[in-house]
């Protein structure tokens, strides 16, 4: 495939593809469908454990095996978690009904999937991304998961396999399918959407949302259109996206493929395509002579689900503060902009409570967030005493610790829980008197006249290089205790005086 | 103990067994002897469970000997339709596709009758997956009508009806989706009841059409059906469509109302089910039944329920649609028959082609078509609207009447092969019974004399949802007034 196309991101969130042939500019339109397994104790319609990784076919019973005569009974906790997620996504909870989606596949014990079709439980919500984009949520409905096939021999897919094994432990595990509206315009934005959704799933304890274990699965509907065209292009659904990296790559590849086709005067066939991570391309799914007809009809073995207003009110009352609001709160407390990475990442890592407490204990907001963003990622961070982080930041601000020293001290604090003063003293980190530092810098200048001459008169490139030389020499002489910024300030002052 | 002194009804047997006057084992042996004598001719059973039954009867006798009470159905032999799951015991639906499958669990009704002390003597034959009206669709050969073995016993619960009619067991369990209890009860001259949808658990009943299926009793007397229904009715947490007990109290107290009579009860004779398509001798017996109720003090009138004429058409879209989905799981992957082939899809097709009989295939095709994109609204969707209409018309009729009276079946038992060539003529057998399944209402059939051919005629009583008690009161009066079955209508 020839792709005579270039792209450049414009205005941040828009990923535009410009054709070298025609000069037309295309934009990507993405809507994501996310399946996530709910973190219930038992399955959707029976009492079997909802457990990942157990011995195959041990968490099964007549109901989740779909044995003749068995009947489903709706798990109350599924409804609770689904509604909690729905409300966190600002959806309205509606009276809903279950439907059967009929198709034959060996991983589906009944050869139909119980899902929700024309009357889903959650409708019309939204999710706000850290960059301020609001992505609409069309619906978030309940359905059952299938079993898991393992195909031996052949290509690893069912066609041409020597034999296949089926594990029904996953059959009947509760899923919520979250159908996002096509409001995403950039591959990176798609990844951010998933990050944000995952944060909401974790905050609401609806799901453990692990993409690598398959408890969060993403399909991407991708289309392209010329910038300014109000109509949506014909879309392809991309499946087999097993990581955020795959998601971003697949969207970008698919968009380019579609632009290339359209630029060549061809049309897009609406189809399901599979992402091939190794080849870095999407491929058409199993070719179908005709569109799949799922023959949906209302599941006669279940009654309509009509949660009372008091139940919904109780869920609203118990909702945790969600990531979007937590970013607002953290930005306000820290004085750092809401879209800056310090705020976004701190909330994403679930460390905003620590940061807020450290700020409340007198720590400078920006420095606290800088430490959380860059220096706290390990498990121990959650146990860090906020007042100690505040003390560390205060020492830093008072010039008693350099940024590098503070990082070293913090790493020790996370492990030992000792105060920053104790650690700094033990490591011999002491505030260096300015005049003492000036003396050291002057000594090095005197000992290196050629370098100093070059530093003062050279071009920016040479000066930058020699600046590194002088800072390095000072660090060596002070055993790393000098503050790099202070050294630079002295060098600057001496150069100005010399000229 | 000789047959002549042995009580023949479940009410009498359980009373005597509980009182220690009669041993469950003796009762059982008499019935097993009856099975030995005639089962070869009748073929009521897919499986006779003589050893298991003897062990269960002995256990009941030990409970009584120990001073305990084995329950409402103590020592009563009972036959179970072979679409009800029985733990460790083959359950086939009279289909090749399930041959040899042993469920790992009991249906709720099976557990309940066992807990009440009943002795299961075997699994009875049926039209494959309960689809049929003559038991001729069984993969294991037809059941014969004990009153005339050249005739069908009706269906789909033909085996359960024949088992009771032949004296193999005083009571049996069947299932009724469009008349599958009432029609064979009528054709065999026994009592059969389809309870209100949700009164009896469907857990472990292998589904034909889930929104219509309901388990119910067969017996020779109205009181025995009341007894068995009391034993199996009640909420089951394993069936989401089962009604909470708080709402069904009256519908579960039946034996106590049997002598209440029908004075002042408003009985409606449904005009749509008394004219065209109903054999004159059957219609005559129904009128005679109406007169008997009037004589006992009921106010009998005629009522028109116009939507009933669309019942059959709606049923033959809704039931096959649900069946096409319910029967998808018989794909050769997990249990039952498998016919190997090169690919999974080909194996599915080969298995289903070999495993299902022609009527099952016909209904799967009908139902798949009715649900297909582009046809859903015209077929399945319209059938659902008709169903709503039927419910509305029934509700209007029950403004003025407490129970409705109709024939159960348009004719008495027909001969083998008479209707197999033309599925539509077979489907018309269900014209009187289908509407109550669509509405979810209770209905029952009881014998009321014989037709011109000397075969039994069944009359049907229908009542609004959870109106079982009223229905049984009327049934008790009709039972007392019923002409002798041995006298053909002149």
UniProtKB/TrEMBL annotation, chain A:
InterPro entries cross-referenced by the UniProt entry: Asn/Gln-tRNA_amidoTrfase_suB/E (IPR017959), Asn/Gln-tRNA_Trfase_suB/E_cat (IPR006075), Asn/Gln_amidotransferase (IPR018027), Asn/Gln_tRNA_amidoTrase-B-like (IPR003789), GatB (IPR004413), GatB_Yqey_C_2 (IPR023168), Gln_synth/guanido_kin_cat_dom (IPR014746)
Record's catalysed reaction(s): L-glutamyl-tRNA(Gln) + L-glutamine + ATP + H2O = L-glutaminyl-tRNA(Gln) + L-glutamate + ADP + phosphate + H(+)
SMART domains for this protein: GatB_Yqey
GO MF term list: ATP binding; glutaminyl-tRNA synthase (glutamine-hydrolyzing) activity
Keywords: ATP-binding, Ligase, Nucleotide-binding, Protein biosynthesis
UniProt domain Asn/Gln amidotransferase: residue ranges: 353-495
Protein name: Unannotated protein
Organism in which the protein naturally occurs: freshwater metagenome
From TrEMBL, chain B:
Molecular-function annotations in GO: ATP binding; glutaminyl-tRNA synthase (glutamine-hydrolyzing) activity
Pfam families given in the database record: Amidase
Region ranges (Disordered): 133-158
Catalytic activity, EC: 6.3.5.7
InterPro entries membership: Amidase, Amidase_CS, Amidase_dom, AS_sf, GatA
Keyword ATP-binding: yes
Catalytic activity reported: L-glutamyl-tRNA(Gln) + L-glutamine + ATP + H2O = L-glutaminyl-tRNA(Gln) + L-glutamate + ADP + phosphate + H(+)
GO biological process: translation
Keyword list, A-Z: ATP-binding, Ligase, Nucleotide-binding, Protein biosynthesis
PROSITE patterns, alphabetized: AMIDASES (PS00571)
Amidase domain boundaries: 27-470
Gene Ontology cellular-component annotations: glutamyl-tRNA(Gln) amidotransferase complex; mitochondrion
PANTHER family: GLUTAMYL-TRNA(GLN) AMIDOTRANSFERASE SUBUNIT A (PTHR11895:SF151), TRANSAMIDASE (PTHR11895)
NCBIfam families in the cross-refs: gatA
HAMAP family assigned to the protein according to its UniProt record, in alphabetical order: GatA
UniProt similarity note: Belongs to the amidase family. GatA subfamily.
Protein name, entry field: glutaminyl-tRNA synthase (glutamine-hydrolyzing)
Natural source organism: freshwater metagenome
């Amino acid at each position: 495939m020839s792709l005579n196309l270039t792209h450049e991101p414009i205005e941040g969130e828009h990923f535009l593809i410009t054709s070298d042939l025609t000069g037309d500019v295309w934009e990507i339109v993405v809507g994501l469908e996310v399946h996530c397994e709910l973190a219930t104790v038992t399955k959707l319609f029976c009492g079997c454990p909802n457990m990942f990784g157990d011995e195959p076919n041990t968490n099964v019973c007549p109901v989740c095996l779909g044995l003749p005569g068995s009947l489903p009974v709706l798990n109350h906790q599924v409804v609770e978690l689904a509604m909690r997620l729905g409300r966190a996504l600002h959806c309205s909870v509606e009276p809903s009904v279950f439907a059967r989606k009929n198709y034959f596949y060996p991983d589906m014990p009944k050869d139909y999937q119980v899902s929700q079709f024309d009357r889903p439980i959650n409708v019309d919500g939204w999710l706000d991304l850290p960059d301020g984009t609001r992505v609409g949520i069309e619906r978030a409905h309940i359905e059952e998961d299938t079993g898991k096939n393992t195909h031996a021999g052949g290509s690893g897919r069912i066609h041409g396999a020597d034999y296949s094994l089926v594990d029904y432990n996953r059959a009947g595990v509760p899923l919520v399918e979250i159908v996002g509206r096509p409001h995403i315009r950039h591959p990176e934005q798609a990844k951010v959407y998933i990050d944000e959704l995952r944060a909401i799933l974790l905050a609401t304890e609806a799901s453990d949302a692990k993409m690598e274990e398959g408890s969060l699965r993403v399909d991407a509907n991708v289309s392209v259109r010329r910038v300014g065209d109000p109509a949506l292009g014909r879309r392809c659904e991309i499946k087999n996206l097993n990581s955020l990296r795959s998601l971003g790559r697949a969207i970008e590849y698919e968009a380019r493929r579609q632009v290339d086709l359209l630029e060549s005067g061809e049309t897009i066939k609406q189809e399901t395509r599979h992402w091939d991570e190794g080849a870095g391309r999407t491929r058409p799914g199993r070719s179908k002579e005709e569109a799949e007809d799922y023959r949906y009809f209302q599941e006669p073995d279940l009654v309509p689900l009509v949660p009372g207003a008091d139940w919904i009110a109780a869920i609203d009352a118990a909702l945790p503060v969600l990531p979007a609001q937590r970013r607002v709160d953290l930005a306000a407390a820290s004085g750092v902009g809401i879209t800056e990475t310090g705020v976004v990442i701190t909330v994403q890592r679930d460390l905003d409570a620590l940061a807020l407490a450290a700020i409340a204990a007198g720590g400078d907001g920006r420095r606290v967030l800088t430490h959380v963003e860059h220096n706290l990622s390990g498990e121990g961070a959650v146990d860090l005493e906020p007042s100690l982080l505040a003390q560390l930041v205060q020492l830093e601000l008072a010039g008693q610790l350099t940024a590098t020293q503070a990082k070293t001290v913090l790493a020790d604090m996370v492990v030992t829980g000792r105060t920053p003063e104790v650690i700094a003293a033990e490591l011999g980190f002491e505030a260096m008197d300015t005049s003492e530092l000036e003396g050291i810098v002057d000594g090095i200048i005197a000992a290196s006249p050629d370098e100093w001459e070059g530093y003062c008169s050279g071009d920016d490139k040479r000066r930058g290089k020699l600046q590194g030389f002088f800072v390095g020499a000072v660090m060596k002489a002070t055993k790393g205790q000098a503050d790099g910024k202070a050294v630079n300030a002295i060098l600057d002052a001496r150069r100005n005086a010399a000229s | 103990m000789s047959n002549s002194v042995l009580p023949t009804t479940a009410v009498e047997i359980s009373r005597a067994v509980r009182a220690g006057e009669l041993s469950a084992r003796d009762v059982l042996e008499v019935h097993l002897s009856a099975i030995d004598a005639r089962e070869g001719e009748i073929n009521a059973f897919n499986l006779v469970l003589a050893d298991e039954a003897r062990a269960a009867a002995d256990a009941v006798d030990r409970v009584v000997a120990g001073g305990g009470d084995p329950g409402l159905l103590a020592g009563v032999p009972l036959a179970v339709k072979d679409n009800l799951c029985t733990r460790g015991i083959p359950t086939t639906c009279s289909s090749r596709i399930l041959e040899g499958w042993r469920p790992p669990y009991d249906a709720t009704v099976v557990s309940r009758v066992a807990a009440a002390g009943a002795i299961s003597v075997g699994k009875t034959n049926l039209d494959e997956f309960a689809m049929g009206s003559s038991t001729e669709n069984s993969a294991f050969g037809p059941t014969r009508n004990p009153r005339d073995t050249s005739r069908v016993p009706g269906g789909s619960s033909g085996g359960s009806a024949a088992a009771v009619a032949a004296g193999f067991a005083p009571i049996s369990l069947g299932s009724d989706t469009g008349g599958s209890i009432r029609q064979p009860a009528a054709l065999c001259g026994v009592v059969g009841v389809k309870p209100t949808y949700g009164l009896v658990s469907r857990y472990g009943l292998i589904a034909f059409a889930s929104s219509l299926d309901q388990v119910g009793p067969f017996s020779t007397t109205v009181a025995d059906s009341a007894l068995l229904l009391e034993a199996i009715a009640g909420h089951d947490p394993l069936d989401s469509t089962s009604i909470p007990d708080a709402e069904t109290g009256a519908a579960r107290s039946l034996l106590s109302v049997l002598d209440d009579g029908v004075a002042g009860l408003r009985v409606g004779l449904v005009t749509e089910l008394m004219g065209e398509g109903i054999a004159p001798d059957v219609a005559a017996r129904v009128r005679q039944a109406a007169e008997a109720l009037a004589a006992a003090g009921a106010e009998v009138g005629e009522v028109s329920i116009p939507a009933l004429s669309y019942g059959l058409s709606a049923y033959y879209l809704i039931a096959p649609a649900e069946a096409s989905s319910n029967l998808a799981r018989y794909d050769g992957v997990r249990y039952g028959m498998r016919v190997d082939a090169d690919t999974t899809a080909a194996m599915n097709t080969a298995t289903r082609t070999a495993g299902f009989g022609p009527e099952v295939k016909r209904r799967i095709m009908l139902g798949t078509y009715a649900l297909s994109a582009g046809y859903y609204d015209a077929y399945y969707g319209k059938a659902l609207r008709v169903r709503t209409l039927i419910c509305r018309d029934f509700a209007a009729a029950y403004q003025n009447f407490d129970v409705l009276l109709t024939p159960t079946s348009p004719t008495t038992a027909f001969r083998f092969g008479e209707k197999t060539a033309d599925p539509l003529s077979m489907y018309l057998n269900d014209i009187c019974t289908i509407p109550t399944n669509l509405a979810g209402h209770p209905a029952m059939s009881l014998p009321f004399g014989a037709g011109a051919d000397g075969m039994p005629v069944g009359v049907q009583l229908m009542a609004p949802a959870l109106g079982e008690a009223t229905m049984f009161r009327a049934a008790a009066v009709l039972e007392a007034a019923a002409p002798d079955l041995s006298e053909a209508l002149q």
